[in-house]
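Inverse folding, one chain.
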């Protein structure tokens, strides 16, 4: 989606229709986005390279009101619970901060981000400052490198 992230769509859907079950189907690695999507209200998360059979299973389970994550993600969470406690810096960000982080990492200006999110560029600048402080970064280039290294973009 060119102008809006899947997480933004998820938040919008859940705010308008809170009881709607949402299966996130994304090109982004589940290790980076699945937990965040689930915390934002997704009923499940799969990557676009998921086998058809598993996709159908997930759709059925979520359609019946259940939740679904891949076996590999479940195993990762079960076998490496320390990953949850050793949170990555971007996991400290609020949903809006994370959204702006991704837009900044894509090289968008404060004005472009403000226009897309219907907020002032001064508000975007405030969010950027908070992001940089929480993530202990100094420059947008460091922020972009972090996102690339952590497969966020």
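Residues assigned per position:
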């Amino acid at each position: 989606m060119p102008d809006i992230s899947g997480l933004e769509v998820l938040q919008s859907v859940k705010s308008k229709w809170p009881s709607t079950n949402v299966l996130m189907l994304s090109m982004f690695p589940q290790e980076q986005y699945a937990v965040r999507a689930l915390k934002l209200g997704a009923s499940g998360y799969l990557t676009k390279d998921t086998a058809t059979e598993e996709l159908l299973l997930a759709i059925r389970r979520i359609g019946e009101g259940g939740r679904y994550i891949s076996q590999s993600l479940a195993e990762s969470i079960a076998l490496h619970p320390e990953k949850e406690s050793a949170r990555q810096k971007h996991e400290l960000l609020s949903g809006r901060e994370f959204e702006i982080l991704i837009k900044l990492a894509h090289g968008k200006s404060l004005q472009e981000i403000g226009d897309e999110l219907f907020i002032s560029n001064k508000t975007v600048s405030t969010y950027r400052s908070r992001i940089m402080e929480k993530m202990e970064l100094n420059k947008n280039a460091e922020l972009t490198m972090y996102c690339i290294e952590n497969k966020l973009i």
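The radius of gyration is 16 Å. The longest strand covers residues 23-26.
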